[in-house]
Structures are given as C-alpha cells and as structure tokens.
C-alpha cells in the first residue's frame, strides 16, 4: 500500500485534461498491481483476459449467473 499512497501524495506531472474516468481507471490499475504484487503490464493482461472471456460469454451465453469476477486470477501459462 505504501506505493499507492506515495503516488497519491506526490505532485502529479501528468496532463491535467485527462478525464476523471481515465484517472479513476489508472488508480484502480495501480491498486490492483499493489494488491496482487504484480507489474502494471500484468494488470493490463488480467483486464484484457477478463474482457476476452466476457466477450466469449456474450457470444455463448452467460458464464455465471451473478456476473461476478472469479475468486482467483491465474498469472502465466
């Protein structure tokens, strides 16, 4: 959590015109990386995999009735 707090407290050098949703998404990715102890690129991979699974589920029908995220993420092969 220290990494996330450090990023929140230090001055932002990013372009200010980014939308609130984009900033919220970036913060969520940073939190996921901190919680799962992974690199930001691995968070991107997790999100991409989830989107692909959801896309397939829409084509084939619902994977789960509740639509919740899986309890575990599998990194790697």
Looking at how many chains there are and whether they match, the oligomeric state comes to single chain
In terms of DSSP E residues, the strand content is: under 5%
Total E-strand runs:
0
By DSSP (H or I, 4+ residues per run), the number of helices equals 3
For the largest beta-sheet, the strand count, sense and barrel status come to: none
* Low-confidence regions: none
- What is the share of helical residues? 55-70%
The H/E string reads: HHH
Number of domains: 1
Instruction: Decide which structural class fits the backbone.
Output: mainly alpha
Radius of gyration using CA atoms only? 15 Å
Large-scale geometry: globular
Give the key terms.
0% strand, 77 residues, 3 helices, mainly alpha
Description:
The protein is mainly α and 77 residues long. The protein has one domain. Helix content is 60%, strand content 0%. The protein has three helices and no strands. Helix 2 (20-36) packs across helix 3 (40-60). The radius of gyration is 15 Å and the shape is globular. The protein starts with a helix and ends in a 17-residue tail after the last helix. The mean pLDDT is 75.
């Amino acid at each position: 959590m220290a990494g996330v707090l450090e990023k929140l407290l230090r001055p932002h050098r990013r372009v200010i015109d980014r939308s609130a949703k984009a900033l919220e998404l970036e913060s969520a990715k940073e939190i996921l990386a901190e919680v799962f102890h992974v690199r930001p690129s691995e968070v991107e991979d997790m999100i991409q995999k989830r989107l692909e699974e959801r896309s397939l589920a829409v084509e084939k029908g619902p994977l789960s009735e509740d639509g919740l995220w899986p309890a575990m993420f599998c990194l790697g092969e």
